[in-house]
Specification:
Radius of gyration: 43 Å
Strand order of the largest sheet: 22-23-25-26-27-28-29-30
Number of strands: 31
Strand content: 15-25%
Structural class: alpha+beta
Low-confidence stretches: 1-8, 14-19, 315-320
Largest sheet: 8 strands, mixed, barrel
Length: 877
């Protein structure tokens, strides 16, 4: 039957309702899918932003890490040179250059501007640090003889490193090498390490200051050092800034721009090194900060939304969507695994994966395959190592956290190499596995071994140096068998003659030959070392008594005596003086070396080319040891500035003479405990051990520098008399020092009186005459001291250009009781006046002596009756 109009309307509404219900569901599903898509896209965008920021922070960290690594390499370089100075009592320019050349492949040397050694010198009571050695020469000529004390930043770093015995960095400043072309911008800094005198290592700041003899400095240009850390491409970084914030406002050290800066993206890290703090600011790029929406994600979302809409039309689509989602997740997992494998393949470290149950190697990355060979299915983890520590290491790893050790690894077709190996336990797909990560350290170990050898061996003879030899002796003294050992101290006789006649190259070659020959004459258990110059030491092991030590010493002496040295058509023979001493557990190393040195000295005094054995009841050795102790104490006193000066007035005793102050400066010593020591106790040792030239120079420089502060009369002081020892006759540097001080300080040379004793003048009349003539040419006055002590002749007075003669105190002391002394005083006075000389009497101790001297015509008197010595004004507390 046909539908009525009403039936048609009802049917139409039913159809429309049937169509609207799935349509609304599809539309809702599509909206839900689109919302989810936008949420996922936003999440992906935020993840990309986080990843981009993490990449930016990582890049900034790499810049900071590279700068820190550069500074560490610089520290390692200068410490290598500090070890050279610790190993040798005196490093020459040639040795310095040789070690510098050995480090030509060092990374820090690429950025190095100069490596220099500054020697500590005391001038006019102040410390100066003069640059004496530096490398490379080319490009650094401007620092030759540079005084570090002239550069405040450099000096501050030097003093900090001296007190802390650690590396110290100077504030940035304009390097001396850049002054000629500088635009006013700071361009460099200097690392400093101290060099101490040989002996026991100082442990406190006070000990370090006393033992401090010089400083090592390595200068670097800031731009050259930092630019190595810069990335090669722009990427996320737009600008890198480095500032020094250690003291005061920040100081800009470096700036490198790549592109437009995004002010909202910045990372700051601090670098602390050598007592200073740098801030590294890394700023992001404006373009890199914009993360676009992922088009693929949006399209994928629309597709998923469409699928969700289709769910309203068919439930079958649910299964198809689940399958599609599972496939997408599988693809993502495989992509992540591929990225992980590619990352491992690019690592420079060796990565090895092996099963824990049987040790079978299942994976090697590219670096490991290059060094160890391919995985062939039969290689075991233990086959990759050649070290007994391997089993112990893996046993410890099985019980504890990951462990690291240095082991030798065995490549498939090359020599074993050393590697730093880190072993960890991991599970891969629920399979217990060993993860081994190794880094090749062969070159580092070779460098360490080379530096260790250089630090313990003499560079010329290849024998042990003094530092290492003393360490071996200390070890022997501490062992239970110390009484079965002996020490030989060998000093070559007349070695200086070969150096002077044929040059130092000949002397060096002779030392090399003798060291090799002595090594052959000794047993393998005996230890030979070069102690310095032409001195060698031998530590004999397994000698029961002094007879065995003497036999070994004689064997060495005869071998040296029989050695024929040929050099450039000349033939030389040489001999050796040897001191021998048995080791004793009761003696310290210092005492043992002093005994051997004293015995060697007595062997030389007895005629050379012989052996002298130390014994406790040897009176000559006892006297020698006392002088040796004083010599050591004198060296310390000179270094620590514990020498003192007193003054004693010379007063006129004839009527009508102007009362102008005249003084003589007298030497004193402040001992370690603070008490004052008179010169009679230490001057004999100074004369014997060649310390008088240094003492004379100290007295002259100190007195002349403070001439107006010696006496209370100040600049009105008439004359200041200074005694010169016999050593000054052969010291050309002393005359140059006097002339230089007079010119630099603009002194009146007529106020200076230099005294030379009669015995010294007569011992070398020619040298005395030359020195006296030179001093008078400068305008100084000269006095002949202790006249009459020798009494060889009055005749030579007319041949010396003198201004004053001082009568020996032994005649003045007996003036009141001995008529002969009275006659001698009158005769000396009359002859002195005939020569136009002023006459002075010493040791005047009473008024009765003054009356007798006045009657004899003596011009001046000096002694306790007139004035007792007082401390010079500038040394009073």
């Amino acid at each position: 039957m046909p539908f009525s109009k009403m039936d048609k309307d009802v049917a139409g509404r039913a159809n429309r309702k049937h169509l609207w219900t799935p349509g609304l569901a599809a539309l809702a599903a599509f909206g839900l899918g689109l919302s989810l898509t936008l949420w996922l896209a936003g999440t992906e965008r935020r993840r990309a932003e986080v990843e981009q920021h993490r990449t930016f922070v990582s890049a900034a960290a790499r810049i900071v890490d590279t700068i820190e690594m550069q500074l560490s390499d610089c520290e390692r370089l200068i410490r290598a040179f500090q070890s050279v100075f610790l190993a040798s009592s005196q490093v020459t320019a040639d040795e310095f250059a040789m070690v510098f050349d050995n480090l030509r492949d060092d990374r820090a040397r690429i950025n190095l501007q100069a490596l220099a050694y500054a020697q500590r010198e005391v001038r006019a009571g102040r410390d100066h640090y003069i640059t004496t050695i530096f490398m490379p020469i080319r490009g650094n000529e401007a620092i030759r003889a540079l005084d570090v004390s002239e550069q405040p930043s450099n000096l501050r770093a030097l003093l900090d490193s001296r007190d802390s015995d650690d590396v110290s960095m100077s504030a940035p400043f304009i390097l001396r090498q850049s002054l000629a072309t500088s635009t006013g911008d700071i361009d460099g800094f200097i690392l400093r390490l101290p060099v101490f005198a040989p002996g026991t290592s100082p442990t406190t700041a006070a000990e370090r200051r006393r033992a401090f003899v010089g400083s090592l400095g390595a200068s670097f240009r800031i731009r050259d050092l930092i630019k190595v850390a810069m990335p090669t491409e722009q990427g996320l970084i737009a600008e890198v800034l480095v500032d020094d914030i250690t003291d005061g406002p920040p100081r800009r050290l470096y700036r490198h721009a790549f592109g437009t800066v995004d002010p909202g993206v910045q990372e700051q890290r601090q670098v602390r090194f050598g007592g200073r703090t740098w801030v590294v600011s890394v700023r992001g790029s404006r373009g890199a900060a914009i993360i676009p929406w992922s088009g693929s994600t949006l399209w994928l979302g629309v597709l998923v939304s469409t699928l969700l809409a289709a769910l309203g039309w068919s439930l079958v689509s649910t299964r198809e969507r689940a399958v599609s989602l599972a496939k997408a997740m599988s693809d993502r997992f495989r992509s992540s695994e591929d990225r992980f494998r590619r990352l491992n393949e690019l690592l420079p470290s060796l990565v090895v994966v092996a099963r824990r149950d049987d040790g079978q190697v299942v994976y090697l990355n590219a670096a490991a395959r290059d060094r160890l060979g391919e995985v062939d299915g039969e290689r075991n983890l233990a086959d990759l190592f050649d070290d007994e520590a391997f089993a112990v290491l893996f046993q410890d790893v099985a019980r504890a956290a990951p462990l690291t050790s240095d082991l030798q690894m065995i490549p498939a077709a090359s020599e074993p190499f050393w590697a730093n190996v880190c072993v960890s336990r991991i599970d891969i797909d629920e399979v217990p596995t060993w993860l081994v990560v190794a880094s090749d350290i062969s070159q580092q170990r070779q460098m360490t071994e080379r530096l260790s050898y250089q630090a313990s061996h003499d560079s010329l003879t290849r024998q042990l140096n003094r530092r290492e030899f003393e360490a071996r002796v200390s070890h022997a003294l501490a062992s239970p068998n110390a009484h079965d050992c002996a020490l030989l101290f060998i000093d070559l006789d007349q070695f200086k003659v070969i150096n002077d006649t044929s040059g130092h190259r000949a002397g060096d070659e002779l030392l090399v030959q003798l060291a090799a020959m002595m090594r052959e004459k000794l047993r393998p258990s005996d230890i030979l070392g070069r102690l310095g110059g032409d001195e060698f030491g031998v530590l004999l092991a397994g000698v029961r008594n002094g007879e065995g030590a003497l036999q070994a010493a004689e064997r060495v002496r005869r071998a040296v005596e029989a050695h024929i040295f040929n050099w450039e058509q000349r033939t030389y023979t040489i001999s050796a003086s040897i001191g021998a001493v048995m080791l004793s557990g009761n003696a310290s190393q210092k005492e043992l070396f002093a005994h051997a040195d004293a015995a060697c000295y007595l062997a030389k005094e007895a005629g050379r080319n012989r052996v002298h054995f130390y014994s406790e009841d040897d009176t000559a050795l006892t006297s020698r040891l006392t002088e040796m102790e004083w010599a050591s104490r004198l060296r310390d006193a000179l270094r620590e500035e514990r020498l003192l000066l007193d003054y004693q007035e010379l007063r006129p005793i004839q009527p009508g003479v102007e009362e102008t102050a005249h003084v003589e400066v007298l030497l004193r010593l402040r001992a370690e405990d603070g008490r004052e020591v008179m010169p009679g106790a230490f001057l004999p040792a100074a004369l014997r051990y060649g310390l008088m030239p240094a003492i004379d120079r100290w007295v002259v420089e100190t007195a002349l520098t403070n001439l107006d502060r010696v006496h209370p009369s100040g600049a009105l002081l008439g004359t200041c008399a200074i005694n010169l020892s016999s050593s000054s006759l052969d010291d050309p540097e002393l005359f140059e020092l006097i002339a230089g001080l007079i010119q630099r300080l603009e002194l009146d040379p007529g106020r200076l009186m230099f005294e030379i004793t009669e015995t010294v003048a007569m011992r070398d009349f020619a040298a005395s005459s030359a020195l006296i003539s030179g001093l008078r040419t400068l305008g100084c006055r000269v006095a002949l001291d202790d006249f009459g002590a020798g009494m060889s002749s009055f005749g030579y007075l007319k041949n010396l250009e003198l201004d004053m003669v001082k009568i020996d105190g032994s005649f003045v002391q007996e003036l009141a009781t001995d008529r002969m002394s009275q006659s001698i005083v009158r005769a000396v006075t009359e002859i002195g006046h005939q020569q136009g000389l002023k006459v002075v009497a010493e040791w005047v101790s009473s008024a009765e002596m003054l009356d007798l001297l006045r009657e004899a015509g003596v011009d001046y008197a000096q002694g306790f009756a007139l004035h007792k010595p007082e401390r010079v004004m500038f040394q009073r507390t």
